[in-house]
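INTERNAL AUDIT FORM
Audit reference: QA-55
Scope: verify that the stored structure record matches its stored sequence.
Auditor: D.O.
Record contents follow.
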Amino acid sequence: MIEVTIKFLVAIFVMILAVIIGFGLWRLVEIPLRIWRDSTFDYVYVDDDGNARELGRSEREYMTSALFTNDDADHYIKPYYKSLNRDGHLRGYLRRRQLPRQVPVASANE
């Protein structure tokens, strides 16, 4: 019984260690990708025509300080690039890593 418990604890420890190492390796890849895309902010805005742009100062402040309920988050933040909002339009905020590489990111309007 003690051997099984020890093996179980070792397996849990190895899985936790693997997750930590995986997260660290992902950060090593993600940060240079953000720099390559010329921005470190997590979100972009996708227009109805599919073009993406950086967020302006007021939009960045809104995205970092707004508290969205589950329903509101669905309205404002798109889960993936081609998803439509509640109004049936393509426009909305999108996580930068969800943006396809071939889509250029324009500068902010402000």
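Auditor finding: record pair retrieved intact. The helical segments are 2-36, 57-65, 70-76.
Action required: none
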